[in-house]
Structures are given as C-alpha cells and as structure tokens.
Amino acid sequence: MIYLDHLLKATQGNLRQLSKHVHFQAFSHDTRQLSPHEMFVAVRGERGNGHDYVLDAVRKGATGLLLSGQTFQQLSEQTKSVLANEEITIVLVEDTRQALQHYARAILEIWHPTVIAVTGSVGKTSTKEAIATVLSRQFTTFRSWQNYNDMLGIPLSLGRLEARHEYAVLELGCDHPGEIAALSRMVRPQIGVLTNISPVQLQYFSSLEHLAFELGTLLTSLPEGGHFFYNQEDPIIRALLEQRVHQVSSTVTCHPFLPDAKGNAHEQPRITVGWDGIQGTINLPASSEHESSENDQATLQLRSHLLGEHNFATMLAAYQIGLSRGIYPSLVEQALTTLQPLPGRLNPLPGIRQSMLLDDTHNAAPASVKAGLQTLSALAGEQSQRIAILGDMLHLGDAATEAHRAIGQEVSQYADYLITRGEWATLIAEEAQLAGMDSERIIMTSTHEDAAQAARRILANLPDSDKRAVILIKGSEETRMERVTELLMARPWEASELLVRQTPGWKKTIFRHAERPTWVEIDLNAIGSNTRHIASLVGPQTQVLVALKADAYGHGALKVARTVLQNGASMLGVATVSEALPLREAHITAPILVFGYVPRWQMREALRLGISVTIYSKEEAQALSQAAQALNKTVKVHVKVDTGMGRLGIRFEEVPAIMELVREAKQLPGLELEGLYTHFAQADAEDQSHVRLQLARFQEVLQQLEAEGLRPPIVHAANSAGTLTLPEAYFDMVRPGIAIYGLDPSPYVRLPEGFRPALAFKTQVSQVKWIPAGEGISYGSTYITERPTRIAVLPVGYADGFRRSPQNWGSVLIHGQEAPLLGRVCMDQCMIDVTHIPQARMGDEVVLIGRQGEATLTAEEIASRLGTINYEVVSELLARIPRVD
C-alpha cells in the first residue's frame, strides 16, 4: 500500500493535482499490466517513454500518476486537459526512477522490517520464495514480487510493503558492475544470502572472477551484527570468502548452508529425485538443534515438491535462516514440504501424447541448463524417452561459444533427442553430434512453432507407444521458450496460470536486441505459414523448392532455410555456390540447387558442398564430370531450357542439343541427372499469353524427352506467380520465392488470403529540433524550409538500402502518422518533418516498412514510389542492418 504523504516526503515531489485518492494499491510502470487503484509510474526506458501512455493508464483505472515534471510540461495541451478533468492524483518529480529509489529506502525506514537480501547467479527467486515460505510460519513476511530484482523492480515491488510486515525477503539481481552495492545501499539488508556463482551476464563482466567480486559485495555491505548465509559447496564462493574476509565487519557472522557443529567436514547429502519432489538426508554431528544418537550423530531430512538435486541447496538455505530466526526445526521442515515448483522453474506439466513436460523456461545459464538436463534424465529413468528442447543462452559475453558447446557435451549424456531453437543453440546441436549423438535425433529450428512441431513428430514416431516421453524446455528469458511449452501442453488453456510471462504486457512483448538503432524484423512464423500455404496449394505430390537468393530476399537465408524445411519445403535454391556455403556450414543437409553460372574453378567447391548444379552446355557437363572424377564424387545436375526468358539455358528450338545434353548428363561418370527446368518471364503479367506460350514450348520439349525415355526425375517450371496462377505448370516441383516472404508477385498476381509479409524495416529517432524558416536541409540544401520546421533525424541512409535517388522513400511512419522526408538522403542519416507530430521525441520508433498502429507502409507501396518492384526494395536492404526475429 502506498500512502501519498509517505510518497511526497520520500521523493520531495510536487503535488500537481490532488483527488480523493490518497493511497494506492501498488506501483505499475506498464499500462498493459496495470490494475485499477494503482499508481502509474511513467519511466523512460531504452525503447520507450512511459509518459506516452498516461491517458492509457487513466483508462485502465490508475488513480495516481508519478511523472517527470519536465516531461509533463511537454505533454500536449489536449492531454493535460484530459488529466485535469479526471479524478486522479498527480505527483511530479525530477526523475521517476530516482524517486522510486528514494521511496524504497524511505518506506523500509518507516516500516523497518528485517531485510533479507538474496543474490547469486541462479536460483535466486526459488531461494527467496523458500525463505519467505519458512518465515511466514511464524512472522508476517513480505517477498519481492516475482523476479523484480533491480534498481527499478525492487522499488516497484516495495509499493506493496505494509506496516505489518516483520521481514522483507528481497531478490537482488545484477547485470553490470556496481549494481549489488547500489541495491544494498537502497535496501540495507541485515541478512544476506549467496546461492552460487556461475557464468551469467558475462557480457558486462570480463570474467567469472569479476562477477564473483560483484556478488560478494553483498557480504561487505552487511552492517555490524549482520548475518551472511552461503553455499559452501560452491568452490568460487569459498575462494571469495577467503579473499574478502578482511573487508567484513568482525561482527558479521557467516553461516554455511550446511553447518558442522564440530568443525569437521560433513558427508555428502543423499538426495532422491522423483516426480513428487526431492528428499535429502544427511548425517550431522549432534548439536543443540539435533538430538544425539548412539553414534553421536543427528539425521537431517528435508523434503519438498521442488525438482532437481540442485534445489536441495535452496531448501538448506531456507532451513538455516528459519533456525536462525528461532523457528522450531519441525515447523521449518513442515514449511519446506509445502514448496512447489514456480512457473518456468522445472515445473512438471502434462504434455501431448501422454508426455510430461519439464517447463524450465524462466531463464537459462550454463549451470541451470546442466541442472535441468540432469533432472530430465533422473525423472525419465530407463522407461521414458528424454527430449531436450533448448534455446539460446544469452548474456554470456566472450564465454558464449564455449558455454553452448559445453552444454552440447552434457546433452549427449542426458537426452535421447535434441531440438534447438535459435542461432546460439545450434552450437549445442553441433557439439552434441560431435559427442556421439545420432544426427537423426538432432533437429535445429528457428521458431517456437517449428520446435514444438519437431517434438510432435518425435512423439508420433516413437517405436514403443507405451513409453512416456519427458521433455525439458529451456532457454534465456528473451527466447520466450514458454511459447514452446504452451504448444506442447495437454491443456494449453491453463497456460495463463501455469507458465511465465503470461500477463497481457508480456504477451505483447517481443525482445528486439539489434546492434544498432536501425534494424529489420523478420517474422519467421509468417515464413513458415506461407510455406505451408504453398505446400497445401500444390498438394502432396508436388515438391516445394524455396528460393533463397540474395540472402533470402533480404530476410536472412539461414533462418529462412531452417524454417521452410520444417514447414513443407524439401529443397532450397540459391543463385551462386557462395550462397550455398553458409547453409552447408550450418549443417543444413537438404538438397540445394544453384540456379546460376558455376565457373570451372568453383566446380570442385560445388562437389565438396554436395549441391546440385544447373547446366546448359556439353562443355559444362564434361568439366563437371572431370571435377567429380578427380574428387571421386557424384554431382546432381539440372538441365535448364530457355523457353522465352532469354537468359541462361538451351533454347527450346534446339531439341537435338537438349536431348544430347540430357544423354551426356545420364552417361558421364560422376554426373547424376536430377532435373529439367525452365523459368517464366511473364507469369506475373496481366496478360497470360506469354507464360502459356513458354509452358507449351516446355511441354513439347518434355514430351520428346519422354518419348526417348530421357525424362529426369524432377521437372519444374513454376515460380511464385506460376504457382499461384498455373496449376498445369506444377510438374514435380514448384520454386516459390517472393510469395514465401509474404509479398505479391506483381500488381496483377496477388497473394491469396492467409499469406502475410515477414519483413518490417524500422529505425529510431536520434534527434528532434526546430529549424527556422529559410534554412536548407541536407546536402546541396535542395530543401529550404518555408516556415519554422520541427525535424527528426533518423540513423538510416542509402548505405542501408534506403534509396537516395532518383526517387526516395517519400515518407515514413512515426506515432502512426506519415512524416515526409526532407532534402537528400545521406549515406547514414536522413531527416523527416515532424512539425505535425508534437509528441515525437528522441528514441521513438519509426517504421520504414511495416505497420505502426493502424497505419501501414508496405514494400509494394515503397516500390511504387521508387519506380521499381518489391523484390528490389527488400533485397537491397544491406547486410549491415541487423536482422532480428
């Protein structure tokens, strides 16, 4: 509960508007998660500003607003007028983040609970919850909300603190140096708990030693008379204590999770793991807490419903703190038996086809992934198949490659099947295969849907239907692996209650971590869906080859390849041998056809990569044969016929030459005739006469080959437009390109309903300023302002494929409105007019292709402005623009 007088005193805030509401249920900084009677705190973040959503907060039932005074003055007069007429209390402060921190410190002083701070690399939330559960048996105990654990989250959480709370158990996280010290200064814990130290957030810590130093700051931040509990089984913690003992107040008492009353080394606990939870038993020397036995030992036995051996340390931490607070041992033990797995933390859920899911999707670090794999193996035993679905482990800095490969080694020991989702996770797959895991049991995917579908196929094809599969699902927070869990749940309607990140705010949140403030978003689910639409259209008798030319038309060839192969494509097409190389290096083994010219000096590379080659002359066929014999390999070839494109291929009139080349391809050593094809020049035209002429010519050639018994196994002709308009051109395979990416082949051949674009092109405002009348903008001063003009500078230019001339983009979208470009587009920047959009400010998202609110700017519309086609628009988005999905 938040009281207005406490808030004003703590923050030195200015009461801008007073209403009947003088106390509030809690703080909220996200209107998507806001509940009625809460105080909305407008926070400026890296990608947004909460002040843009004050009216939304009022509509959602907020009864208080905590705003920046400076930003409040910049709100539109219309917004201020609406607020003035609402029954809402408004407090203005200099900085809302700092105000929250001042409030957190003040409210802890006012209510003065005993603060217990829990930190560590992994297991913080579970340990916090276990400690709070134990203390609640005897004391009124507050626990920080969910995993709100940073300089913003903890103050937001402390909005729920009340005078009745005797203890406050708070989780402290850190992702940069100095954060634990700052958090400790804010909450001033009397008791500290350090769970473990292992690689996490190493992108901001140059080494594990620096991370250990940071976490150890909790110990040195404790006051005189404080208590520090630590996991003595962690060698890094033991070393840390030895190094920092001289920095600790002599009155701070250090307690290992498993103390030895006589100072002797304790034996290892005996831990059993089952679906009902874990039980740990250990013999300890007799002490005041334990009755002596004939061997002068006491037996400590703890049970809980938590899964995994690693959670025994969690139980020990809670046990020892409970005893230290004077709670009787039997009450502590009883409290521990009530512990249940938290959502996303090895939480067992019924899955499809009688499988059991281990939903461990809250987050992922090397230590927690290893613990999850060990738990998977222990619970599955010998009677169940073990399936691991693993996403990327993020924030590991320079240790990322080694960490993922190390997990690959673990997978080979603890899982029967591996499904990966994401690019870093492919390293896990590669290493698992090197460690001896059958490649047929390793599936690499790029989307949640494909990962879930791969698991479905495994479950459907298990040889013994009586065996119940156990599926571990895990990945870092940003990978949103809970979406995979939801797709595999036997009762998916329970997802909102059982999975992490299920609030409306989280449902709409998509992590976008680009290397620069201009980026391309790729919806791989759209690509998968579009591929399925094509496969359904042509039917099961016709194969689908997806064209990946020009880095999959600017969409990212590698991820697109994995996605289409999981959704109905059986072959891939590239323009050059060099385009095939990264696909093979990424362990994509599907057939690949090179459409373009392969010079003699690249033929051996084509053979090495095992790709199919297009031929259209005897000389090519003979050179390929020689290269194949030299390497003792076989290369598959497709003969190309030019039926009216006027590009590569033997002219259709030269039937004898075509037949001779086909015979050569069948007879020359090292060659295997795989296909025959042509390419349509006008399949996307309004007038279909030319494409039908080409089709007739191709059919005539094919008939003559069939008459001689020379028809290759795969005949193909239809591109995207042909696939959509000419079913008679399907033959054995179709070759869609632009349609896979959700773009219309032409104004005359539109995609059917159900297809959707996969690409959005975005940037951010880097500066907003006023330019007086009569001033020039950009190179050459080709645009002169006619009036005072408010411009926004965007960090995108022609070196990104954002066209400069002879025509440019014309306008872009900001705050759901079109803003015209002013002057010439520069190499890396451009300027737009936002005079009519007063709320535009630095950091705002700008859409160059895609949707923003109700407004859209399509690739087709941009193509029309530029006097070109949508193919060129998306394919010219240069590689320096990061692609995120």
From TrEMBL:
It is found in: Cytoplasm. PROSITE patterns: ALANINE_RACEMASE. Substrate binds at R647, M827. The active site is at K549 (proton acceptor), Y779 (proton acceptor). Its cofactor is pyridoxal 5'-phosphate. The keyword ATP-binding applies. InterPro entries: Ala_racemase, Ala_racemase/Decarboxylase_C, Ala_racemase_C, Ala_racemase_N, Ala_racemase_pyridoxalP-BS, Mur-like_cat_sf, Mur_ligase_C, Mur_ligase_C_dom_sf. Pathway: Cell wall biogenesis; peptidoglycan biosynthesis; Amino-acid biosynthesis; D-alanine biosynthesis; D-alanine from L-alanine: step 1/1. The keyword GTP-binding does not apply. Involved in cell wall formation. Catalyzes the final step in the synthesis of UDP-N-acetylmuramoyl-pentapeptide, the precursor of murein. This is Multifunctional fusion protein. It comes from Dictyobacter formicarum. The lineage of its organism: Bacteria, Bacillati, Chloroflexota, Ktedonobacteria, Ktedonobacterales.
